[in-house]
Every structure is written in structure tokens, then in C-alpha cells.
User: What shape does this take?
Amino acid sequence: MAGVGGLNAAEQRELQGRMEQKQMKDFMNMYSNLVQRCFNDCVNDFTTKSLLGKEESCVMRCVDKFLKSSERLGERFQEQNAQMAQQGGMNAGR
Amino acid sequence: MSDKPSTSAAETAAGATSTANVSNATGTLSSAAPPKRPVVDNPAFRAMGLPRLRLPSRNWLIFLSITGSFAGAVLYDKWQTRRVKQKWADVVSHIADERLSTKNMPRKLTVYLSAPPGDGLRSAREHFHEYVKPVLVAAAMDWDVVEGRKEGDVRHKTAERIRRKRKRAGEGEPMPEEEAAKQYAVEMMREHNGTSEYDGLAGDLVIGRNTWKEYVRGLHEGWLGPADAPQQPVPEPSSNLEQSKHVAGQPSLGDSVEGAANVVAADTPDASPAADDSASSSNQEDTTQADEKPQEEKKEEEKPKARNPPASITPSEYHSASLSSHTPEMVGPSTPIPFPHILGFLNTPVRTYRFLTRRRQADDIGRQVAAAVMASTYRPYETVTVSDEDSASGSGTNVPEQTQILVHEEANWQKAVRAPRKEHEESVWIEDVVLDERLASRMRKFELTSEDEARAKRVGDGTEKVTKPGENS
Assistant: This one.
């Protein structure tokens, strides 16, 4: 993806746009995963249209935990990625 | 009076039945009915109303009693080890339920594992998986394993870790920026994100006497030796120049291998860190030496190279060395864990006995690991009295406790361990444990408090219930 040498302005703008698109896509993916998981796990009672009290609190906790765990996972992934990138750079030189 | 007709009737009946029997016998001889065995009639059983039991023959009895007792002993031992492991896992399970914020790392224990003399790493790993790991998993503890396949590996790796910590803190020669970024990529990313390491005790679990010796040696080398990594001495006359030049970083990462023309060195089937070392150290030299390289590489290939770089400081130099300024007040509390391991055909009775009493081992190891996991107290190592073999009066000398940890395991080692070492092999296992007072006073040992012991006993008896995860809490 990286061009030879530097990127000129037009390419950089395009790269920027693509990154933003990707981030948006990732965000929407995460949102739909979150909704699916929390709905499936928390909301079980369909005898009534409204959310019960326990379902409401369950959903809040579910969102909280999901975001915290994805934050943690993201951090670990970032660290490992950095390490791999460093070592990969060295391995490529071999 | 009434007897006579009845007896005569009985006689006639008996007569009739006997004739009937005879006729039956003659009639059925052709069909070859098996003769009936004489049934042992026990009047006591008959009185109790039990059916007519029949014991098997003498041979069967011998066989069944031997196999039955052996199988019973094995099953009882297996059942008890399972219970004991479950008990220790329950004792520490409350730690798994503690909360952890996203910006904090959990506590990490370091496990030092090395292959026992005469055997491979697999047996040590299985010992770890069977006795140590269940307790660690039940407490949701994070752990890091320092493995050693041959003598000296654990020493080298321990010293490397300590040197790495020291370099990170800023000792030794400063590394260039990109070098530091490569080595400490994970740590730097964590600092960047604001993730903090666990603030509290870490811990070391050392499995086996040989590992303990290497661990102590590695500790001393790491904190007392120079902060820079030792060089693999290249056996060339020009090597003196290379040794004085310092290769920044650890030998195994070998960032200077890129561009090294010595692919020959990489082909050596021996330890590749050693090859990288010679390649990297020789890379420092100018290319004028390149033509000498092929012959010297061939010479090295014939002579086996030492697996790890030699220690940067020998035990005799401890008293003259200076302790690193970054040495923590307490060198991570350590817990030695017994690893009974014995080989040999003639030792089969001993091994059978140990196989049938593994529950005691499980209990002991579970206790040590639980002490390390709960980290409630730790005590400094004391001096113990060792009885002198030679003195007639039986008086003992006082030695530091660290030298006598798990010393009974040395009796299990084979004679081959005490054979004199070849040039490229290390001899940590047969040397005594040499301690430096400054470091030895900083070593601590995990212990279980008496309340924890009492609680463990109650959990084992069943009087204290431990809530499992998944139940309503």
C-alpha cells in the first residue's frame, strides 16, 4: 500500500479518505456485534413490548463490558502489532 | 407309632427316587451331563439366609487380591489427588473474581522450568501442567515461563531478563533510538497508552533443585554483573578486538545480522544465537577480514560451541562487584517447588511408591503455589543448620537457607551429572550455591499465613463452601 518513497498530496488525501472509510466500517461492525450480542444475551422475555427493568440493567452492563473488553483487546493487539512490526522489519532485512 | 409308616414311606420313596435316579443316570449318560461339584455348605451363611456363595479357587484368589489391591491403591491415590488439587484451586478461586480496570495489567508470575538432568523438558512441563497450573488457572493468574532445555539456559535467560530491566531503567551503554524501539516495543506502547503494570508483588516459581541453582546464579549475574550483555567469545586471534567492541542489544535479536555475509555461520546446526553472535561480532570488523572468515567458520563448526554466552561474572568475583543501583529492595519473592524425578530400572520400587503416593506431592505443591498466588506474607530466607557428615560429634554448620532448598532432590540425580564437564558445557548443577550477601538478604520466600492454612483445611474438609463462578453470587 505504501508507495515508493513518499506520498504526494493527492495520494495522501486518498489514503486518508480510505482510512476514514475503514474506521467507519469497523465502528459499524463493532456496533452491530454489540447490539446482537447484548440483545441475544439479555432480552429474553417477549410477553411484553417494553424492556423490563432487569433487561435494561443487563443491557447497560453488557455494553459496558463489551466496550471495556474491546478496549483491552485493542490495546493488547496494538502492542503485539508494534512488536511484530519491529521484528518483522528486522526479519525482512535478514 | 406314627414314625414307622412314615419311615417306611420314606424308604420306599427313597428307593423309588434312587431307582429313578439310576434310570435317569443311565438315560442321560448318553447326553453327557457334567458332574455336579460338591457345594460347600456354610451353616453360618445358611442361618443368615444368604445364598450359597462359593469362593474362587486358590489361584484366582491370589491373582485377584494382588491386582485388586494394586488397582485399589492407584484409584484411591488418583481420587485423593483430584480432591487435593480441587481444594487448593478452591482456596485461591476468590482471586479470579476480583475486578480489573482496563488500564491495568494483571499480576504476572514468572515460572522457571528446566529439564531435569537426564531427561527432557517434556517431563518438567507435564509436572508443571499437572500440579502447578491448576492452581494458577483457578486464580486467573497470568504467568510467564522461562524454559531451559539444557544446563545453563535458565541461568542465561534469567540474567538476560534482569539486564533488560536494568537497561530499560537506564544503566549500561545507551542504545540508539531505533534499537530501543525494537527491543522495548511492547513496553513503550504500554506507556504510550497509559496502561500501568501491576503495582504490587510479582513472584517467581522455581521448579526443581537444578532450576533453583541456575536461578540463583542467574540472579547474581544479572544484578552484580555488568549491565551489558556478554559476548560469545569467538575463538580467533582477532577476537580480542571484537570482544572489546560492544554489540548493543541481546545476541539473539541480532539486528546487525542483516547485511552479514556469513551465511555459513547460520548453517551451523548448533545453537543459532551463538551463530548470530559470532556473525554479529564479526560483522563489526572490516571486510578485509572477510577472507579469513570462511576458514575460521569451518574451524568453529568442528568444535562445538557453547550454547549460551558465558556468565559475565563468576562466583569468585561477586565480592568485588558492585550491586546495580536499580536493584529493588526485595528481589521478587520466590517459591521453590519440589520436582521429584528419578530414573533408573533399579529404582523401580521407589518410583512405584512415589506413583502410589502422589497425593502428598500434590498437596505440597498446591500449598506452595497457593502461597505464591495469594501473596499474603513473605519472609526472608534464614540460616539453617546442616549436620556435617565428617564431624564425629554431629554438630552442624549454619548455612544460608537458599543453599539447602530442595537439596534432597540431588540424591535423585544420576551419576552422570557429576561427570566432569566438557569445554562447552556449563556446570551450574554440580557447583555449590554461591551467594552474595547483598542479594541474598533481599530474597524473600512466600508463605501461607496460619489463617490461610486453617481456611484451606476447612475447604478440604468440606466445612467451608466455596462459591463457584456461574452460581448466583
Q: What stands out?
A: The two ends of chain B are 87 Å apart (CA to CA). Strands of chain B lie at 108-114, 142-148, 203-207, 331-337, 377-380, 383-387, 396-400, 443-447. DSSP finds 17 helices and eight strands in chain B. Residues 235-292 of chain B have pLDDT under 50 and may be disordered.
